[in-house]
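Session log. Operator J.P. requested a structure for one protein chain; no other inputs attached. Running the standard single-chain path with token output.
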Amino acid sequence: MRGGGRGRGRGRGRGGRGGGGSPHDTESSSESSGDCSSSSSEPSPRQRPPVGTSRSGRPLRTVSNPGFSHDASEERMLRLAMERSAKEVGYEEVAPVAPARVFYPTMEEFANPVAYINHVAKEGARYGIAKIVPPKGWAPPHMINYDNDTHMFETKLQKVHRLQEGKSYKDGKDHTLQSYRKAARAFKAAWFARKDIDPATWTDRDFEKEYWKIVETSYESLEVEYANDLDVSVVGSGFPRVARDVRHDARDEHVDFASRAYYDHTAWNLNNLPSAHGSLLRHIDAQINGVNVPWVYFGMLFASFCWHFEDNYLYSINYMHTGAKKHWYGIPATSCDTFERVWKSLVPHRFDKKPDLFFHLVTMVSPTVIRQHNIDVYSLVQEPGDIVLTFPQGYHCGFSQGVFFNCNEAVNFCLPDWLPFGRLCSERYRDFGRLSVFSHDRFMYVLAMRGLFPDDHKLGESTDEGALVHASRMLLDEMNRIVDEEIRLRDQLVQSGIVMVVAMAKRDDALTDDEMG
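Structure written below.
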């Protein structure tokens, strides 16, 4: 999950707030200031934690340091080319982007989280991203101690003015939550003071125009720190975490926004959603950080999650616990191929060196450029309490407005309509020689053995028998493809001279931590 955007997200990032904010939505004036510039900060004297961030976790989702190799002349040529292009064409202020879909579930609809998501998925997928505003009264407890000055986490140093170049990030400071909040507040104060602007007068549109002006023209150098892909076992989840397996909970929940027990067990709690009724990820028993175990994200002014899609083209859900708004941009799966062709045309030399640059979450392409190529792009603004969905194969990116720091949490899940997307992504990983976070073929086998919904006759009122039949046919198609490919590859081995074939021992069908490791 990518990002603020799951993400890797991935990013994972996602009116009527319904109590979604927290006391930390505004910063206390009694707190001392942090450093004025993240780029000039001294390294932290504290030791890096041995675990807890993406650099010590699953290698595939450690996307911040792709390890590019560049010589100085190439970098100078790239900057000169971009500057020359900006002068020749002239900067075109980013125009308002068409809004993505926003959904307002009733209390009754909100009682079955997966069924509701399934209900809105077809419409939301047309935009690549969509927002869900919970009913009035939604107020989950804030389980993260935002004043914590003990637990350390790593950050990435982002050069906002060079995000068009597709360069990897350097390491930022190690922070505690308290020190990161102070740094975010100090950076914001210094930036607005330098501009002689009262941040209270700025609208969402002002932030959007300024952000893309910096990205597209590099008219000022700007470095910010972004804390992404943080392990909930180290920094904590913003939602309550309970040990009980929620896979056997009732599909229709008793909604009681005043009850702590409700927030412990609802599937809107991102710790529970991947294994809730109707999510196919419940059949993966392994705990995969950033996939079926949430990641946490802390951002400051202009901290960015760059264009990306989710691991295995999964769905993602991103919840904002507290803090400054986030701008999100989405491109639907139907425009994915066209967008990638345009992206490659903008930085061809990067793709010459790194053909899999699409996977690295280090490049921003402005909505202006995207629309010039007749590609559909949509936007939304996420506030505390808002839920953002991203859809299979849909690209998304965004940035923090950062009047103060913000905290988001994201995780993946998948519905039956994901099946063909999962296959496409599996084939793409094969083409680029990349490892998948889980074996797609093995997952299909597990689903076939257990049944898509062994204890669910339907996914709430929104899923009819025809939809389940369609999902079953997609799974059957996948199994036929796997069998055909297996036979073909075995025949090739025999023809190449293999003289002995030994059948593998039978084993349990679970996708366990041992298998995933």
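Operator note: The domain at 23-66+78-415 is CATH 2.60.120.650 (Jelly Rolls).
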